[in-house]
Design brief:
Elements (H helix, E strand, L loop, with lengths): L6 E4 L5 H12 L3 E6 L2 H13 L3 E6 L5 H15 L4 E4 L14 H29 L3 E6 L2 H5 L5 H20 L5 E8 L13 H8 L6 H5 L6 H12 L10 E5 L2 E5 L16 H7 L22
Helix pairs in contact: 1-9, 3-4, 4-6
């Protein structure tokens, strides 16, 4: 996968998945703007990439504000002369159940994930359209945005909105040859260790133990590096015809998420009154109610 001559911004790339994406893009030949809210973390990530033979600079910014987005794009252009790829990975967690979630808990997560994706994409697209050579927006989603997750009102809503961005922007940017896709990763990070079913695998990985086959296949759970190949693919010319999609990656599994669609419909002449709905519900629409949340399989017995 050759990305020589391409310039990429990866938000929230000081550690975890974001750093894995930045390393993979740089290894493929792209010049990368690394971003983190912490200066030491951002500089360390950029140094790691350059020490490995890649090209990277650090830009410290708290993603969310328009000024931060414009600063990231300006850094890419000032350092490398152009912008071809944006990966919107920056994120935070403020997990609480609905009745305990504060306005600040909600706003902080929405500002970084949802508003940050919007402001960074807007700034990047303005530059890409000015260049007139197309581009790539790679928006990082989550299974929580696809299925919901207990205690993640803010995060689930933001990640669902990000996939909505991908579908809408894919249509708006088609004529400019800018593709837009959402990546739905699952990997051992500080975020996933908060999920009880996954924490033992995160702990094992940190202890230097190999990820068991059950985790890599049935749970699609692996390392951040396992998810990075998809980002490099989507940034490449090989993915020029892929847009508007939500693509899952994790462990040994690559998958495609469906767009929401009607699964069943019922009709009544003149429309539906409450009593008619109640009578028809059990055998029509109500017979195919959808589940919520991630239904993770149980590990095999030892």
């Amino acid at each position: 996968m050759d990305l020589t001559g391409k310039v990429a911004i990866v938000t929230g790339s000081g550690r975890g998945l974001g750093l894995a994406y930045a390393r993979e893009l740089a290894a493929a030949g792209a010049k990368v703007v690394v971003n983190d809210v912490d200066a030491a973390t951002a500089e360390a990530a950029a140094k790691e990439i350059t020490d490995a033979g890649g090209t990277a600079v650090a830009e410290v910014a708290a993603v969310g504000r328009t000024e931060a987005a414009e600063a990231l794009v300006a850094r890419a252009v000032d350092e490398f002369g152009r912008l071809d790829v944006l990966v919107t990975n920056a994120g935070v967690l403020r997990d609480k159940v609905l009745w305990k979630m504060s306005d600040d808990d909600f706003d902080t997560v929405i500002d970084v994930h949802l508003r940050g994706t919007f402001t960074c994409a807007r700034a990047a697209v303005r530059r890409m359209r000015e260049q007139g050579e197309g581009g790539r927006l790679i928006l990082i989603g989550s299974p929580a945005g696809q299925r919901g997750n207990f205690g993640q009102t803010n995060y689930s809503a933001a990640k669902a909105g990000i996939v909505g961005f991908a579908r809408t922007w894919a249509m708006e940017l088609e004529r400019a040859n800018i593709t837009v896709n959402a990546v739905i990763p699952v990997a051992a990070t500080a975020m996933t260790e908060t999920i009880p079913a996954l924490k033992p695998y995160v702990d094992a990985l940190r202890a230097g133990e190999p990820m068991p086959p059950f985790a890599r296949t049935a749970l699609a759970f692996g390392t951040p590096e396992d998810a990075a190949g998809l980002v490099a693919f989507l940034a490449s010319d090989a993915a020029s015809g892929v847009t508007g999609q939500a693509i899952g990656i994790g462990g040994d599994r690559l998958s495609l998420w469906s767009h929401p669609q009607q699964v069943v419909a019922a009709y009544a002449d003149g429309g539906w009154r409450p009593g008619a709905i109640a009578e028809a519900w059990p055998t029509t629409v109500g017979a195919q109610l959808q589940t919520v949340g991630e239904n993770l399989p149980e590990p095999p017995a030892a």
